Amino acid sequence: MTSLLVIIVLVLLAVALWQLTRIFDLTQVGSSSDDSQVASDNDNNIQGYIMFGFLAFIYIFTIYGLLKWGNLALHTPASEHGILVDSLMNITWVLIFTVQVITQGLLHWFSFKNRGHKDKKALFFADSNKLEALWSIIPSVVLACLILYGLYAWNNIMFVDKDEDVIEIELYAQQFKWTARYAGNDNTLGKANVRLIEGINTLGVDMSDKNSEDDIVVTELHIPKGKKVHFKMRSQDVLHSAYFPHFRAQMNCVPGMVTEFAFIPTYTTAEYRELPFMVEKVAHINKLRAEKSVELVAKGGTALDPYTFDYLLLCNKICGSSHYNMQMKVVVDTPEDYKKWLSEKTTLAQDIKAAAAADAEKAAAESAKANTDSTAKDTVKAVIDTVKAVVAKVAMK
Length: 397
Ligand SMILES: [Cu+2]
What we know:
- The protein is of the alpha+beta class.
- It has 8 helices and 10 strands.
- The strands form 2 sheets. Strands 3-2-1-5-8 form a 5-stranded mixed beta sheet, with no helix packed on it.
- The longest helix is centred in the C-terminal third of the chain and has 49 residues, at 348-396.
- The site of copper (II) ion has 7 residues, from loops.
């Protein structure tokens, strides 16, 4: 509401200023100033210098932005293909910056150099095949090279050989959380369907499928370093996007279909935490948190916990009101730790059995309690009846 009021005030202010300038123009009628509406040499000079000023602004702001916010860009990639993605990104940046600096410089220089002048006349020519060829061929060649390199990178990243030794993991997206399913010893995920969602089987895994028997469902993702992990994504409700920024991986999760990608992690969580840039970043965040904590404690609040780095799986599609909080912790372990972690997990089949047993136990306890209650009620009733009978007998006597 406040923003709306601010916008209305700004619009009204702009209208008022515009009206003021009109009134000012009207007061100038008849004066000696030039009101011919045709640009004079002086006007053209001013416009030329303003253009140079704008060019300087573009250059200075670009340099300022790079220095000020450059450190916010993602740092060292934590996956094998991440290096390829980063180099593609860097090449694109260098090209864009070079072309931007040269073309903007030329554009403004020529506009200034050929600014309007009473004695100058613009040269007219219908077309120039040489120029047309030059500005068509150069961008086409550059763009074709970029696209080819991009396609090469894409195939390299997306292609998973059927015979390749990979770990199969399903990522299940729903408003607003992620769940992961490991394929188990057979390394084949069992079938699943949203229609089969029931009780603790929140992913709708088809338990009649043999491959589902050893599937493991977890809410914290663990993956081993140096091993290719093949992710298969499903969505329960709306369009989500599985985004692993540190691994340079992202894929849409579309309801009704399975999407996929694969990557090889190259740093364990512990190793990534030790990288110098990360140590520096975490120290900076914790310094800010400590300062904020002093402020909070002074106001009677609680101090903030210190920050520790963890890889994250985020949702990168605005999928609803709590989209910002749709994330899952990702831990990259050494292969040994990963095996140990996974071996400690129970399978979904075991979980369902345990839940059914717990339900049965609860139902038995409830029925036993109901029986005890009814027996107690019967006893009390019998005692009351006996007392009533005795009282009646005594009264008759
Ligand atoms: Cu989402």
